[in-house]
Amino acid sequence: MTATPVTVTVTGAAGQIGYALLFRIASGQMLGPDTPVRLRLLEIPQGVKAAEGTAMELDDCAFPLLAGIDITDDARAGFDGTNVALLVGARPRTKGMERADLLEANGGIFKPQGEAINAVAADDVRVLVVGNPANTNALITSANAPDVPADRFTAMTRLDHNRALTQVARRAGVPVDEVRRLTIWGNHSATQYPDLFHVEVGGAPAPALVEDESWLLDDFVPTVATRGAAIIEARGASSAASAANAAVDHVRDWVQGTREGDWTSAGIVSDGSYGVPEGLVSSFPVTSRGGAWEIVQGLEIGDLSRERIDRSVAELVEERDAVRELGLV
Ligand SMILES: NC(=O)c1ccc[n+]([C@@H]2O[C@H](COP(=O)([O-])OP(=O)(O)OC[C@H]3O[C@@H](n4cnc5c(N)ncnc54)[C@H](O)[C@@H]3O)[C@@H](O)[C@H]2O)c1
Ligand SMILES: O=C(O)C[C@H](O)C(=O)O
Question: Is pLDDT above 60 for 2?
């Protein structure tokens, strides 16, 4: 066991995802069985009492890896020395709210959090933005933390990736573990493009998945892209346990590496690959080695995929332009 615990900050710690996430982190499922963790729970003042309740429950689990818990409503205290920051707390869209209002309201959260990360986080800080609109919130956070390398800021599309894996496994009639090389491109929104053109099933290419265009375009893509709304409709609340699970998967793979012969999907700052404008936070096929994401290069992108990727990227450009106009980036 390493002597120094890793400090993990979770914002929105008293929310639904926070409740599903903190216990997984404290049990070692995110950073591994040999890494002690110190948790920082960052909430707004109204959320602090509930976060204290969650902390009591964490204490009551007697997790051997849990080295301590701090609760705060102050961003600087919350990110002080943090190594991994999970930005979950966000302003949800409410009735009658336009997208620009939503971006502005979230700018009020992610701009100061970016500034605080810039000022006080550890040199090796890695940030995952879960709170929606996740890609553009990650862009705002990164833009307001100019001293932290941009490749440390990511947005979560792992839930979309996992959703797509299950749909493909069902279709192919195989265990989910046999599905590899699937990609989510673009925005974590209904415009995202889950791409099956490079998928392998049981170690072999699976052309049958894309040959049935009506299944692909009328069933698979919309099922994955609108799954969040379907969960809200069924549960009366947005996905929480599956979102927490995806956050654990994302950080685990980032820190510990992706498996050989496979890749995953993550929203990362574009270097211009695949025609995605540099600087946008877009989902790509990625591998991780040595604690850094790398975009999988050289994939052939056909006309159908090109059109779908461009559509989602155009939405990201619109969001970026809107937050630029608001002076948030
Ligand atoms: N990227 C994804 O795949 C994905 C999936 C599911 C949900 N989400 C998003 O995750 C976010 C959280 O979802 P939830 O179900 O936990 O919501 P929730 O409303 O249950 O919890 C959000 C928590 O954030 C807190 N909060 C608000 N502003 C804050 C701030 N400035 N600092 C710290 N905490 C703050 C609130 O007090 C609340 O406790 C939402 O934006 C949701 O849309 C993203
Ligand atoms: O919270 C939402 O709007 C949905 C969420 O992003 C999801 O994909 O489940």
Answer: no
Q: Are 191 and 135 in contact (CB under 8 A)?
A: no
- Is 15 annotated to bind a ligand? Reply is yes
- DSSP state string for 264-308: EEEEEE--SGGGPPTT-EEEEEEEEETTEEEEPP-----HHHHHH
Annotated ligand binding at 163? The verdict is: yes
Cα separation, 13 vs 259, whole angstroms = 30
Dist. CA 92–CA 100, nearest whole Å: 13
Other Cβ atoms less than 10 A from the Cβ of 200: the count is 15
Residue 250 falls in the annotated catalytic set: no
Considering every ligand atom, which ligand is closest to the CA of 134?
1
d(CA 171, CA 216) in angstroms, rounded, equals 11
Which residue is associated with the tokens 């110190």? 38
What angle do helix axes 48-61 and 16-26 make, rounded to 10 degrees? 30
- Tell me: the pLDDT tens digits for 285-299? 999 999 999 999 999
